[in-house]
Write a structure and sequence with these properties.
There is one protein chain. This protein is mostly helical and 97 residues long. It contains 4 helices and no strands. Helix 2 crosses helix 3. It is elongated.
Length: 97
């Protein structure tokens, strides 16, 4: 049986077995942040396919707030789209807080 443990913080190993001994050192994958322009173009592409009215400035703000995380950017886009109105910079700032 294989177990995959995904963590956001660096750890020294898996804890398991008797007395919580470390049996194996995990593989570590350091993912790089996605460029702002890549996130913006993807948000605009998703918005066009889903019929969401969004300004490029709003997409840029979402991209910066997500700090290079595509999943975070898409989640924020979904939150803003829930307002059922045009997504502009004011709406994004109101949603983010």
């Amino acid at each position: 049986m294989s177990v995959v443990l995904c963590l956001t913080d660096k750890v020294r190993g898996f804890l398991g077995g008797k007395n919580g001994r470390v049996y194996q050192t995990p593989q570590r994958f350091d993912f790089k942040r996605i460029a702002t322009d890549v996130i913006i173009s993807r948000l605009l592409e998703i918005s066009a396919k889903e019929g969401i009215d969004i300004t490029e400035d709003a997409a840029r703000i979402i991209s910066r707030v997500s700090r290079g995380g595509m999943r975070d950017a898409i989640s924020l886009l979904e939150l803003c789209a829930g307002a059922n109105t045009k997504i502009d910079d004011k709406l994004v700032f109101d949603t983010v807080g």
